[in-house]
Design brief:
The protein is an alpha+beta fold and 379 residues long. The protein is built from seven helices and 25 strands. It folds into three domains: 113 residues, DNA Polymerase III, subunit A, domain 2 (DNA Polymerase III, Chain A, domain 2), CATH 3.10.150; 124 residues, DNA Polymerase III, subunit A, domain 2 (DNA Polymerase III, Chain A, domain 2), CATH 3.10.150.10; 118 residues, DNA Polymerase III, subunit A, domain 2 (DNA Polymerase III, Chain A, domain 2, Roll).
């Protein structure tokens, strides 16, 4: 194998796939990136068996076709360190040689036949969705996934695919995030699946790496397989595995009788939480919210005797109420909400709260966040 390519084009392709390469694995071949030069195109792939990414470029001059598996740990950073300009990569026996100007690197390769067979797209007819919308939906839910390996279904995001809508849901039993959008796509029946969150988190980076021509359509194409959910964005294909269920009946835990509604400015709320939480107990991370007509008081108390409080104006005219939350969870919600205004729906100090971002016109956006309260002293 021998080909010539510009450093920035090679680095761009490697940056898309490199994060999938595992640093620790019982299969040494997985520490490699797979490069294939054929038919006027360079294709690069990486997999950790749960996630696979393949990308490619035709901005290459191929002199001899071939395929090699190159350990990524030194090859990728060496390419990143190169100056702009031409890079020539050639294979000689069990080694590859990279030459760029006066820079030169020789690296051993591994047996390409041992590299796992990469998954193909299982569904020829994909579903198109606007890339920005899908990435927003992933960001609006992925922070709520569980880290509890004893409950693997909660480590993924539930996808509810309907002929006219897409809904994503994540929960760790302390909080829940749901994001829904109307869709117009050709699907004959409903489909529900739990998608590995780790795979989905690669999508924003893949989309941000597209050049102007590749991103022209603005769409990601989704392919639903039996054991995987696949995405095509420009020249890149991402495969994410599906997790075994069942996923909890999340609708059963969303309260329908919260009758106290507080409208407030997200930035003001977030900044005040950040300030007051400095004195919060490091174990419980509790911050207390007290709402009454037109105002919200935020306070926190630490075990060392430190305490703080602050107040912000809100739109509220109901009876006074105090409720406690884990401020880290509260901040996670606010960081992943784009709207400037939010609606906080409460019932009492012991019931789940709902947080919904609002448009400039005061309408709901299709995003709902549920947060369980912390018991206040004396409750």
């Amino acid at each position: 194998m021998k080909f010539e390519i510009q450093q920035e084009d090679l680095q761009k392709a490697l940056d898309i796939i490199a994060n999938v390469v595992p640093t620790k694995t019982t299969l040494p071949i997985l520490t490699c990136v797979l490069m294939e030069a054929a038919d006027g195109r360079l294709t690069l792939s990486a997999t950790n068996l749960d996630i696979s990414i393949t990308t490619g470029t035709d901005k290459v001059t191929i002199k001899d076709e071939g395929k090699v598996a190159i350990p990524a740990v030194k090859f990728v950073p060496f390419v990143r360190s190169l100056r702009s300009g031409s890079v020539v990569i050639s294979q000689k026996g069990k080694q590859i040689q990279l030459v760029s100007g006066k820079a030169r690197m020789t690296e051993n390769t591994m047996n390409v036949e041992e590299y796992p067979a990469l998954k193909e797209l299982e569904d020829k007819n994909g579903l198109d969705v606007e890339a920005a919308v899908l990435i927003d939906m992933i960001n609006e839910t992925s922070y709520s996934v569980s880290k509890d390996e004893t409950r693997p279904a909660l480590m993924g995001i539930l996808w509810e695919v309907r002929p006219d809508s897409l809904t994503l849901v994540a929960t760790d039993a302390h909080r829940l995030a749901r994001s829904g959008r109307s869709m117009e796509w050709d699907i004959s029946s409903d489909r529900e699946m739990i998608v590995d969150t780790a795979g989905l988190r690669h999508l924003p980076r893949i989309v941000s790496g597209l050049d102007q021509d590749e991103a022209a359509s603005g769409n990601i194409t989704i392919f639903m397989g039996e054991n995987q959910l696949s995405f095509r964005a420009g020249p890149t294909v991402l495969h994410a595995r599906l997790l075994e269920g069942p996923f909890p009946d999340y609708n059963a835990v969303i309260p329908q009788d919260n009758d106290k509604f507080v409208t407030l400015d997200k930035a003001d709320f977030s900044q005040t939480i950040r300030r007051v939480s400095i004195t919060a107990d490091r174990i419980t991370s509790q911050i207390k919210l007290g709402v009454e007509n037109g105002r919200m008081e935020l306070s926190a108390r630490g075990t060392e005797g430190s305490q703080s409080e602050d107040e912000i104006p809100v739109s509220y005219d109901g009876e006074a109420l105090e409720i406690g939350f884990n401020f880290v969870y509260l901040q996670d919600i606010l960081k992943n909400i784009k709207s400037n205004s939010i609606l906080l729906s409460l019932k009492d100090s012991q019931s789940a709260a709902l947080i919904k971002p609002l448009t400039e016109d005061g309408d709901e956006t299709g995003v709902l966040c549920l947060l369980m309260p912390l018991r206040l002293a004396g409750d």
